[in-house]
Design goal:
Length: 469
């Protein structure tokens, strides 16, 4: 009888082209996503060696990081951003790679368009020169970010050299409280295990709480696996997964879909399979969360107080803790509730799907934003933008004083025109709160779309449970 295996082991083993003891495995890659930031040097490498892209049908390109979210029909104003996007266009044309460029109906953030187009499927290996490739793992696949030299490897060979990571299971059971959504789940986990607590591991999320989530909510959780140091995160596919995939543009159709589902059902972790580490959490303990520092592990329940240095589990973190609070202009032991904010950013590959926009619209319908706050709502793709308009969400946002813009990474990372000004506070639905991440000297609180929406209305950090039944 064969040894019970985890879903991670099943997928990894099925994709190993060559294994030699003491060396990294040569791993076949099913789908390679590329964008304008990490691909130019890779294409240059191919050009210098006179090599073609090995399999253009497994390579998908889009422009997302450097694109403006206003006036996308006009030439890009920022010189560096314009150069990056133009270079992607030239490279894709030269090497025969399909590009979902600005104006294309499939354009959007790379980790949002893959699932919505049916390019992201269970059992796959997926890579992209972007750390948040772990998002795709929500479909039950091995998806991870790679460096530029590795992007070149995959373009040239459709394979990559990788050491097999350790496995971790994070199990969450129980029913979530009111106002608690998937972003709160992952911020809670990271606050418990720290921003480095899963380093060296590939994480499988399991338990009744995870099973109860929609696909879009699962993507939010897998997206931020990287924020606790993990190589990636995944969730075993189930009926929720199959129903989401069915009839999407590039997904298997008809009898081919039925056969695919039959195979996908075999991916789930076997009874008795062993993980290198197992962690368990109770959904009842999770509350609306918010970060207060400059890494995603510095998070608290929205009604809790910021810790004091002497309360930290690891005393070696006291110096960086103090530096972080100085940057944020906050005091140890104080509450964030009532903290005034200047900007609200609703978007990014973490929370810019249609369900996220619906959550926000439901909260703000019939209300107005605080006069002191600027609110940007950035859909994750052209398809999300079109769906939002079809449902009249744009009308709700406009009436509330929220600015609905065009798709892109936007203020998640300040590589484009959408930057939070120095010293200003922003509640953001994105994944990172590093110093200057959203603009030089900007200050970021990470939170859920619900928490961001109520902060936009009140002009301060607010407990969303005051607004929901």
């Amino acid at each position: 009888m064969s040894t019970p295996k985890t879903i991670f082991e099943k997928i990894w083993n099925a994709h190993v082209v060559k294994h030699s003891e003491g060396y990294p495995d040569a791993l076949f890659i099913d789908r390679h996503f590329i964008h304008e930031v990490t691909s130019p040097q890779a294409f240059d490498g191919l050009r210098k060696r006179g090599i073609k892209v090995f399999n253009t049908s497994r390579t998908t390109a889009t422009a997302d990081h450097n694109v403006p979210t206003k006036d996308q029909h006009l030439p890009i104003k920022e010189a560096l951003s314009r150069h990056q996007v133009d270079t992607l266009r030239k490279n894709c044309k030269e090497f025969g790679v399909e590009l979902y460029d600005l104006g294309h109906p499939f354009q959007g953030i790379v980790h949002i368009i893959g699932p919505e187009l049916g390019l992201t499927l269970p059992g796959m290996t997926i890579v992209c020169g972007d750390s948040h490739t772990s998002t795709h793992g929500a479909f039950g696949n091995i998806a991870f970010g790679i460096g530029t030299s590795e992007v070149e490897q995959v373009l040239a060979t459709q394979c990559i050299l990788q050491y097999k990571p350790k496995t971790m299971k994070i199990e969450i059971n129980g029913v979530l409280g009111k106002g608690v959504v998937s972003k709160d789940i992952i911020l809670y986990i990271i606050s418990k295990i720290s921003a480095s607590g899963a380093t060296g591991f590939f994480v499988e999320y399991a338990g009744s709480t995870i099973r109860s989530l929609t696909m879009e909510a699962r993507m939010t959780i897998c997206n931020m696996s990287i924020e606790m140091g993990a190589r990636g995160g995944l969730i075993a596919p189930d009926e929720t997964t199959f129903n989401y995939i069915k009839e999407r543009k590039f997904a298997p159709q008809g009898a081919a879909f039925d056969l695919a589902v039959k195979n996908w059902k075999q991916l789930a972790t076997d009874e008795g399979a062993v993980y290198d580490k197992v962690l368990k959490f109770d959904a009842a303990d999770i509350a609306p969360m918010i970060t207060y520092g400059t890494n995603p592990g510095m998070g608290i329940k929205i009604t809790d107080r910021i810790p004091r240095p002497e309360e930290l589990k690891d005393t070696s973190e006291q110096t960086s803790f103090k530096k972080s609070l100085e940057y944020m202009g906050l005091k140890p032991g104080s509450q964030l509730l009532g903290q005034p904010i200047d900007y609200v950013f609703i978007g990014s590959c973490t929370n810019a799907r249609i369900e996220d926009l619906r959550l926000v619209a439901n909260i703000v319908k019939g209300k107005k934003k605080a006069g002191s706050v600027e609110v940007w709502v950035i859909p994750g793709s052209k398809q999300v933008e079109e769906q939002a308009k079809k449902e009249g969400l744009d009308i709700i946002f406009n009436a509330a004083g929220f600015e609905l813009r065009s798709p892109g990474c936007s203020a998640c990372l300040g590589m484009n025109e959408d930057k939070v000004p120095p010293g200003k506070y922003c509640i953001s639905t994105s994944n990172r709160n590093f110093e200057g991440r959203q603009g030089p000297k900007s200050r970021t609180f990470l939170a859920s779309p619900l928490s961001a929406a109520v902060a936009a209305i009140t002009g301060k950090v607010t407990d969303v449970r005051e607004f929901v039944n």
